[in-house]
Amino acid sequence: MSPGEFDASFTADMPRLRRRLLALTGNPHDADDLLQETYVRLSRRARAQNLTQQQHPYAYLCAVAANLLRDSWTRPSRREHTTDRLPESGWDGGLGVYEASATALALLRVLSEKEAAAVILVDLEGLSHDTAAERLGTHRGTVQRNRMRGLAKMRAALVR
What span, in angstroms and rounded, lies between the C-alpha atoms of 109 and 121? Predict the structure, then answer.
């Protein structure tokens, strides 16, 4: 399936899907963000083929969008939070930043290369497991497993 066919299929159901997402989120900005996330998630090659093969592509789009919305509710740390106040920061001459960097590097040295890469991409850079897997050229489950092992090793090192 060509990207044009996927785009045509997606855009045919896009207004209807946006109305559904607006009803679910109650906010047009959140609905648009979720619509874009749905498009990005499905535009990956393997999933784009799934869309045109579905008997009911709109239902498939709704299911993917609902899963993304549910993920944002269950992982509030990935949501953006707006505030009218700037964080207060005291100047310590850069010592706090240096200590944090030194501690992070010492903890990362405890890990294998694969574990460190998974922890850095997911926890420090904030990438999803899927995106980290694409960058590392592995499967999502491998990234999850390496990340969990790495975090366990880091916790154990902190206890010592």
Answer: 15
